[in-house]
Amino acid sequence: MKAGGAARSIFAGYHPLVNYLWFGYAILVPIFFTQPVYLAVSFASALAYSLYLGGRKALKFDLGFVLPLMVIAALFNPAFNHKGITILFYFHYNPITLESILYGICTAAMIGGVILFFTCYNALMTSDKFIYLFGRLVPAMSLIISMALRFIPRYTAQAKRIASARRGIGFDVSSGGFFTRLRNGGEVLSVMVTWALENGIETGDSMLSRGYGLPGRTAYSNYRFDARDRILLAVLAVLMAVSLACCITGAISVMYYPMFIMERVRPFAGIAYVCHGAVCLSPFALELREDAQWRSSRAGISAKPRARQEDANGTF
Amino acid sequence: MALFEIKGVSFSYPERERPALKDVSLSVGAGEFAVLCGKSGCGKSTLLRHLKTVLTPFGKRAGEVRFDGRLLSDVPQREQASRIGFVLQSPDNQIVTDKVWHELAFGLESLGEKTPVIRRRVAEMASFFGIQEWYEKSVAELSGGQKQLLALAAALAMQPDVLILDEPTAQLDPIAAEDFICTLKKINDEIGTTIILSEHRLEGALPRADRAVVMGGGEILCEGGASDVAHILKEKADPMLTAMPTPMRVYLALESAAAGHVPQTVREGRLYLQGVSGGRPPDTPDARGLSIGRRVTAALRDEAHPLIELKDVWFRYEREGRDIVKDLALRVCPGELVCVAGGNGTGKSTMLGVVTGENKYYRGRARTLGLDPKKAGGRALTDAGLAALPQDPQTLFTRATVFDNLIETAAACAKRRGEKPVPENIEADVRRVCALTDTADLMGFHPYDVSGGEQQRTGLAMALLTRPKLLLLDEPTKGMDSFFKEKFAAILGDLCAEGMGVLMVSHDVEFCAKYADRCALFFGGGIVSEGEPRAFFSGNSFYTTAANRMSRGIIENAVTAEEVIECVKLYIS
């Protein structure tokens, strides 16, 4: 897979509510339940999905950043934590225990999994979705966030323009002595503030003119909650409920210190693992199913392509 | 029935002696397309702002405004928000949200419409304006013209009965401005929305409007069809005449009739000129014989010591990006005003960056005032005599009054020259520059409170305080009305006469044709053609002035309205 799959992601096409529910579960569960099987499943699905979405670029990031971070995290715990009864060896008169090594590995998997899920989040979730979620919670927030997203880049660009304009008549922020530069930088800021206040008046006028401040404002979004969202939401909700119930009731709880004990015998554990795995892998599975469907439906298209069709296919 | 009925409205801003509006009465009928014109500062904006309660300025007021038969103040805010659409001047300031779709929905959200209603209206608007392609985009990715179109669509999404537009094209380039006016006409024709437009670029708006209203000094000077207004203005010998489209000016200068249709478009102007010349005369008159309106500067020009010398210069912003400036050659000598014209996004401003060293070229040879801009820092170039005026002069102002801004700059410049900052000398310097740029009257004002043209002159004054030998201007005539342009051109003329070299980048073909010593067409990263304005513009057939398009084949080499008038007077009648 050369290019990432984020651009044609099917999961990104689901309603933000479904997206956020899934990301919420995927990111929070490993943080709160450090259960080795859960962590392993989470990490594996996060890795698979991030590679699917990000392609070659994601691989670079995973090897160059996530992996070293995980190694450090895995070494950190046994180096400083000497709890546990199974002493493997002594390092500078400090006991290194099996339990603390295990716990270190679990922490590393947790950190790695969460970071990878966040890269998936970045690849899939747009500011529109974020705004939508907040608009649901607090309608006024959606407008405020949307305005902030417009103004931050605008102000940055303006600050650059001011610095460049002032350079044009000899006031250079990047040359001269320390105090000259400080003063020139301060001037840019002062121009910025005046400019922002002055131009804000027109923005205010534009808002007032379009009825801002009338009672009963609604928050519009482009998203529709349709049948496919309903089905996925129901399935995810059931699976998550089972998995979380097992976590909370202690059915799959694990003890690291003083001795590593994992109660595998309880019959619920198997069900919990399956449910957790199904939740974590569901977006990835949806993407794969979509790709397969696309390939099979494309198989029906004539093999003798016109030049343009070739092009269109080449991008996938 | 009249949609808006303005009766005897007078208004003055707090702490200003002169009233902004004096006993203004005007009625605008449903479905009308009215154009409001006049010098900047004549009260156009103030009048328009009286047509919507939330935008009405504070101050002393008399008279009444009726909307749809009722006093405007009695019309509920909700109804006003929806039925009276307002579009302001700055494309950037009036857009509130970060996404195109959200901006379209903004007004409907305010009205508390439900999602399905908003979805339909927004879809309608996107389809009508053809913006479905950038519907999901960030506003930051749009061009100025697209932003202004979005502001218009956002106002129209609320289904107003009337659209009020306050100089909506002032910040746009001519092509985007023309598109915008066409869209207004389309809305007026196809939806029947009443349109009240204030505008200083009348070439596009006047022929499309039903009615022109001319304002001056807070009063309505005259109103009526474009032809009637033109005749009245001529009778009064009003200076607004110079702001009229070229064909009208030519007609009015040549004809003595006090009534009748006045040609407004280039097509009508051509027909008129053909009529006057009785078909194509055997020996076509040539404007090259004229000696009006143009400075003779060749004697002043110092060809041997160019201020700017670019040879085969290439530049790109990113290593993997495309070349923005390609194979560019340009010379600017002392004492000449060189105008570089060309479309949006062709790299004209980037070229200025190469000259100032802001953009480091990667191939070729460049010399600015004898220095290599790539190596010499910005400071060294400024010391050598380079000053650049940005497109938006607001980016220069750091102090609360025009006077303080100039004093501060003068003091800093004196310090840089190694002079002792003597207050008398600094003030004398400021006074000298003020006399040159005609900014003495603005001294006490906040630089944001003066008009766009005045801001431009204040910026110019600040640039001149650095005592430059070479001045770079980026779109200085943007947002200036025709009167300011004339004044501005006179200032530039004086500067060139003192031996300064001016390089100006502009969309404003008419300005270039009238005042430049040399014009160049910038396209695809380089200069495609250049020459003395008359030769340059008569060599182009599309990218040229209205006067030239109008007189092509009837009079040779005429590029300004004055030249056309003079030729007809001399050779034809």
List keywords for this structure.
heterodimer; A: 316 residues; mainly alpha; 9 helices; extended; disordered C terminus; B: 573 residues; alpha/beta; Rossmann fold; 6-stranded mixed beta sheet
Count of all domains of chain A: 2
Whole-Å distance between the termini of chain B?
A: 47 Å
> Main beta sheet of chain A, described?
2 strands, antiparallel
Radius of gyration over C-alpha positions of chain B, nearest whole angstrom? 25 Å
Shape of chain A: extended
Order of helices and strands of chain A: HHEEHHHHHEEHH
**What's the shape of chain B?**
globular
Low-confidence stretches of chain A: 309-316
Q: What is the beta-strand fraction of chain B?
A: 15-25%
Integer average pLDDT of chain A: 85
Which pair has the most extensive contact? A-B, 52 and 69 residues
The helix content of chain A is over 70%
pLDDT below 50 for ≥5 consecutive residues: which ranges of chain B? none
Record the SSE blueprint.
The complex is a heterodimer of chains A (316) and B (573).
Chain A lengths: L15 H17 L3 H45 L6 E5 L2 E4 H27 L2 H11 L1 H30 L9 H32 L17 H22 L5 E2 L5 E2 L4 H32 L8 H8 L2
Antiparallel strand pairs in A: 1-2, 3-4
Chain B lengths: L1 E11 L8 E9 L3 E5 L6 H6 L10 E8 L2 E2 L5 H7 E4 L12 H11 L4 H15 L14 H13 L5 E5 L7 H17 L3 E5 L3 H4 L5 E6 L2 E6 L1 H11 L9 H9 L11 H12 L30 E8 L9 E8 L4 E5 L6 H9 L6 E6 L9 H7 L1 E4 L12 H15 L6 H15 L14 H13 L5 E5 L7 H16 L3 E6 L2 H7 L2 E6 L2 E6 L1 H7 L6 H6 L9 H12 L1
Parallel strand pairs in B: 3-8, 3-9, 6-7, 7-8, 13-17, 13-18, 15-16, 16-17
Antiparallel strand pairs in B: 1-2, 1-4, 4-5, 9-10, 11-12, 11-14, 18-19
Helix pairs in contact in B: 3-4, 3-5, 5-6, 9-10, 9-20, 13-14, 14-15
